[in-house]
Amino acid sequence: MELTDTARRFIVHWGEMGSNWGVNRSVSQIHALLYFHGRPLHAEEISETLSIARSNVSTSLKELLNWNLVRTTHVLGDRRDYFETSLDVWELFRTIVRERKEREFDPTVRLLKELQAQPGFEQEPADAQDRVRETLRFMETLGLWSDEMLRLSPTTLEKVLKLGASVQRFVRGDS
């Protein structure tokens, strides 16, 4: 498949942004291709289109599957696996937030709880205990808020985000 200039720029940029977010560039570019293209593609097609080694495509697709950002599908009469992603940007956003929360945020909350519960915690300096407790309180509050936001429909979530921006402008006194 030949990429248009628009598609190429989108995919390259998404790969650069993925690197900034700590995601492998190839993983991000494959996701961008599937999203931009809007239809299932097989691994060979992805490899040829992006000029990425087939083994790299395979590894990247496994990572995208683990993140629940792509799913495997099949085409009648073709034995190959095809891969597709959601075309709903809100669904993708929610998936990424949910996955990152489970992988990065929740383990930190568990650790902070464990630290507080361990026998020697009371022997730590009072100000250190306070920082651990405050960090846990903050993270639990943020976790509850994010869980609630993830329960909202995309339409409602968009309204909440716009409302939050309006409240910020009002508080600042912007016209």
UniProtKB/TrEMBL annotation:
<keyword id="KW-0238">DNA-binding</keyword>
<dbReference type="InterPro" id="IPR052362">
    <property type="entry name" value="HTH-GbsR_regulator"/>
</dbReference>
<keyword id="KW-0805">Transcription regulation</keyword>
<dbReference type="InterPro" id="IPR036388">
    <property type="entry name" value="WH-like_DNA-bd_sf"/>
</dbReference>
<dbReference type="InterPro" id="IPR036390">
    <property type="entry name" value="WH_DNA-bd_sf"/>
</dbReference>
<dbReference type="InterPro" id="IPR000835">
    <property type="entry name" value="HTH_MarR-typ"/>
</dbReference>
<dbReference type="Pfam" id="PF12802">
    <property type="entry name" value="MarR_2"/>
</dbReference>
<comment type="similarity">
    <text>Belongs to the GbsR family.</text>
</comment>
<protein>
    <recommendedName>
        <fullName>HTH-type transcriptional regulator</fullName>
    </recommendedName>
</protein>
<keyword id="KW-0804">Transcription</keyword>
<feature type="domain" description="HTH marR-type">
    <location>
        <begin position="22"/>
        <end position="80"/>
    </location>
</feature>
<dbReference type="InterPro" id="IPR026282">
    <property type="entry name" value="MJ1563"/>
</dbReference>
